[in-house]
Amino acid sequence: MTGRQVLMAEAAVVGGLVLALLIREMPGLVREIRIWRMVGIRSGSRRPR
Q: Which domain of life is it from (predicted)?
């Protein structure tokens, strides 16, 4: 194997792990986004006091 093939294999493994982590955490992320929407946290939406 050349160095380039090793790097491509490592990139594929890391990409697969990141994808698996995102899929595993998706329900929690969706729940957090819903909570943020209910609370109304948006950038720049607060009025100055």
A: Bacteria
CA separation for the pair 29, 36 (Å, rounded) = 11
Separation between Cα atoms, residue 4 and residue 24, nearest integer Å:
30
The encoded tokens of residue 30 equal 């969706």
**Model pLDDT for residues 14-42, shown as the tens digit of each residue:** 999 999 999 999 999 999 999 999 898 76
Q: Which amino acid is at 39?
A: V
Q: Can you give the pLDDT at residue 1? A: 82
CA 28 to CA 42: how far, in whole Å? 19
